[in-house]
What we know:
By secondary structure, the protein is an alpha+beta fold. 43% of the residues lie in helices and 13% in strands. The radius of gyration is 32 Å and the shape is globular.
Amino acid sequence: MFGFFFPPSKRAFIYVLDTVKTNQMPNLGNIFTAERNTRLASGTDIKLLPESDYQFEIHIEKDIKQVYRGLQKNLMLYKDEKRGPTAVVIQSPKTAEDICLLMPVFSEFPIIPIHIHDSDTLYQVMDWQRVGSKAIIKHFMNVDSTITVLLEQCRYFHVPIGNLPQDATVFGSDIFFARHLQKQNFILWCSPTERPDLGGKEADDNRLLAESETTLAEVSKSDAYPSVCLEILVDGIPVSTVLEAQNLMEMEGTSSSIAFDCGPSSSLADMMTGGANPAPLGVYDESAVCAGAFRVLRTMVTGWVRDVLEYKNVFADNQIVNFYRWLRCRQSLLYEPAIKQILDNLMKKMFTQLIHEYQKLGAIVLYASYNRFIICTKRKNVDDATAYVQYVNQCIRNKEIFHCLQFEIESCWEYLLWLDTANYGGVKIKNDALGDQSNEVRADDDNKVESEDNQSNENDNRTLTLCFHIANFLPQVAAIKENFYNVVAEYIQEAYTYYKEQENPLMTTEQSQEPEQSEDSEDSSTELMKYVRSNLAHKLYILVEKIKKKLPSGTLPNGQNVFPVVPGSYLKLTNPSLEFTKAVCKVLSLDSRLADVVLKLRRDLLRIVGVKEFSDEAEWKDPCLSFMLAEVICKICFSCNNIDLCRDRHVINEVTGSPLWICSICKSPYDIKEIESMMIECVHKKSMAHILQDLQCIKCKMIKDRNMTRFCSCAGRFDTLLPINDLSQTLATFKNISDHFQMKKLKDIVLWVEKMNP
Length: 758
């Protein structure tokens, strides 16, 4: 459907491309009036809405060429009317260049593109004419407000409104950075490719492209945490790192003027006369050459922050939010991997300092990444834990290097069993109940027992959360997977109850009025050991025996394998009862207080299965490979996350039926095509790194420094630094992922690489 609106004459031409010339369009005048009245009733300024009484003319065509001719004819008639200066606002999935090629008359007017696209499934309904008509009317109603916002953004960028591309934020960052660089007499390295234009030098140097983009900064400490744990969202680490780069280096005892990455720059005269250093620092560290550009980058970010603080400029704030996305965007004109490497190194330092601050203030950091922290507060009460975390966050923000960070409490657990980000479980407080904890009634000297109503309200605010990816590798036959969740849920519930009773013993008994706090943990652990040794162990003996009888092997009588095939599978699993035993014992062993009891339980269960305790098959191995895709930007909340392609949560696309990864912050699905392109790029990088790697002597471990020698001076033979098995395993993992997530292009590339490198 094509809509052409002429505000001066209040006329609109609607062209519909259909297989038949049957007019099934609704009354557009009524739709227009209803939509306009609805917006007026909702408080929209009448100046931002088009005038009323538009006349609609509908044309049904079977040939797209007739549509283009009709649109050109309408525009030519308008041009002949000579109504004065006119600009054409185009909202279309086609670019302005394509439209001018299809309809040349459009090139005679200035064009303002609006980069708003409808869903691909908009017209996949029976009454698509009505749905499309409403969409056209709504887009036309939004034109004035959209143009107003674009004009304000262009005034801040100092660029013509017709020059704004689809990703205006990245374009704006390029513009600002280029202007700052030119003021400092830098030569711009603008390039439409992923390599900066360095006068040809970039074609000979593949070091930064062959290396991994970044070393994943992540901390995880598996254990059972019976006290309150809080998840904290951290925002602003990249921007804070740029602003506080000098302070970060001074904290480590160095100065920005004498650091290794700030080598002396050679003047143009020295370069021409040959007086420059024979081995400049850039030969060894590419990022050293970009130290001056990084200082210019800091000046640019400081200007954005000043605009936000002094003038409350929303567009400057938008540039700050998208700063790190621009810095790592390979489509940006001023993309420079060396500058990004400088920032990555500084971000790791700030990340380490932030973890140290939490630990110094008494918190246990059980998980940490650039945008998410989970800390154990060592507090039993949710109110006390929340107040403690707020105090800690405020103390951290009072420090100069952290004053730009933003902290937000996302979720809370009263008991948490943590293995890693894909395997955890516990008793979680509902988000809507976090703010109501202060209204709960607690036991004190005057009121020893809580009312039953308050107890029921507390239970309603708590939910048992189970997220164990290792369960996906257990068969669903004979309810093995279901029994795993039942056992883990029962254990977590019992452990939570025991620790809760020690916190408030009056909930169940009145014998001990003043229990010793130092004995709480020991008493609860002792009671929990008794439960595991007796009740839970007896239940597991029966379950393992039943599984062994029903499924003595990993195949059914018809030859079908009972073990599911999921992304990351690499082990050949053949014994269901053994895998169930190892998975349950691995989860129970997370609590270090129960190590001896779980060890004995594991030995007894392995005896039932018929496997020796110290055999290789009894050893726990994670059944899923882990491949982290670094720095994936969510287009909804703009958070930068590391995605575990094999273990992270995903949802099913309702249209294609293929699974999609979801953002851990806002729960929105990622763009599957963008992730596929990043994985293809990763295959190219790893292939290049394998080809360009050094050779090392297997005896003396010296790097090969001569190209023609077959053996080392010590008579040892050379071997690659990176084993071929790592690359083969990565390619096999990518092939598995491409099958599961329907990535045909990635699969073709992986198969081609394997075929060309047998």
